[in-house]
Amino acid sequence: MHDEPWAHVHDPDEERLAKLTIELNNPDHDYYHYEIIELTTVGIDIGSSTSHLMFSSITLQRVQEMHSSRYVVVDRQTLYKSPILLTPYTHDNLINTEQLERFVAESYAEAGFEPQDVDSGAIILTGEAIKRRNAHAIADIFADQAGKFVCASAGHNLESVLAANGSGSVKLSRNPRRTVLNVDIGGGTTKFALVQGGRIQHTAALNVGGRLVATEGDGVVTRIEDAAHTTADSIGVPLTLGERLPDEHRTAIADALAECLLDVIQGRPRSELTQALLLTADMPRDMAFEALVFSGGVSEYVYNNETQEFGDLAIDLAAAVRRKMEEHALPAPVQPAAERIRATVIGASQFTVQLSGNTLSISDPSLLPYRNVPVLISRLPEDREVQPEEVAELVAEAFERQDLVEGEQQVALAFEWDGLPRYAQIRKIADGIASAVPRSLANGAPLMLVFTGDFAKLVGDTITKDMGIPNPVISIDNLFLQEFDFIDIGEMIYPARVVPVVVKSLLFPEIEKQTAEVLD
After folding, report:
1. Exposure b/e, 392-404, CB count within 10 A at least 16 = b
2. Kind plus residue range of the DSSP H or E element containing 317
3. φ, ψ for residue 62 (rounded to 5)?
4. Distance (Å, rounded) from C-alpha 351 to C-alpha 149?
5. What is the DSSP string of 109-132?
6. Using an 8 Å Cβ cutoff, are 150 and 71 in contact?
7. What are the tens digits of pLDDT across the range 133-180?
8. What is the DSSP letter of 448?
9. What is the pTM of this model?
10. Is 2 exposed, middle or buried (0-12, 13-18, 19+ CB in 10 A)?
11. pLDDT, tens digit, for every residue of 376-418?
């Protein structure tokens, strides 16, 4: 439990706890399957440079505190790690779906799993891979084949979070309590995550990676990403497809990219190149941290764990990072990573799933699963009684913030509220929700609700039973969300009657053009 970013409790009733432990350790006991949920999960990471997958076993336990009941992860076990595949591309700059499908199928067979054995997990397309024109199609193919509920998602902020968890930075920040900066240097992007006491405070991404330029043979350039052109142009270095990249030019490009990383790590004023390569909002300039951890494929070279050359900039970029770390005083000492190149796939396999438990209300479980549902968050006041018109106004503002029109697509209305669950108050919240979505109710769309506290069943049952609204209701709770999240809701797990939920930032950019030059 101490490895989780959310709240946990210590039960003072030792006698009750001892009895409960006996029951929970006995799978033959009826109580076991209501209090303990065991999931087989898969994480599939399709990145700019490499692709790999991992199977894990996740154990979640229901923890009761006051009127709250939520499931927390109490154990994780790695079941299988696939070989690492260089992400295959076709000559027209698309990801080679046939090779990827074959690789995933072979990994499933080697691990001894069938698609139906998988309960949950995530496919993460990262870095430059998400810019390929067939990224959507790849995700859909694997989502259909990789298991009954595997979400397909990608994105810089999500990958930052997964890498920080998989690398061990989140755990490192807890004991002793401190602030850790995780720097995940991949093939196409570098992701930053500032973690304080187990909670990720800030994330950001730069278009800096070890495979922005790919070469073959005698150093002949076979692929150039846009960021490599931007970097080469900024330092006056020629970079041309089909021509050899001299060692001094390779070093110069790597050195320029490393300077951008140091801009962020050291909190220096951002150069024009750093600004140009930012893919997200910037990290705070004044951030302070006590430890620095590297992950991602390039980190294997940074930590001197890998020496093989793969026809890219990875070795040169790592050497430049090490050199600059020696030349400049770092804000904090570098700590070893629990995982490096596998950090993101471990995060995808072991840190994506939340459960909504026994206080949910789902009028028709056959509607599940749902994928890629945008979350609209409303924060309700807790110091007074909330009126229906307030709820409706907050929901309308949430639609407006995301430029969505009520009734045009499926959304999840999320509510941050921890007030007293008196019926009069619950009814007013339900009335406000109903009045906020007239078009959705009129066209028969499911009403999807998410609560941070244990109110999903109360509100859901009020809407269906007391108010008599005929629309299907999917009301879940005990989730940790933020603005612009998306959620996947999986099929119900029996007998515990819980649903697995993957919370993610969704992140397929609408790119219809070539984003790299490729040698035919």
Report:
1. bebbbebbeeeee
2. helix 314-327
3. -80, 130
4. 15
5. HHHT--GGG--EEEEEE-GGGGGS
6. no
7. 777 777 777 766 666 667 766 678 878 888 999 999 999 999 899 999
8. E
9. 0.75
10. exposed
11. 999 999 888 999 999 999 999 999 988 889 999 999 999 999 8
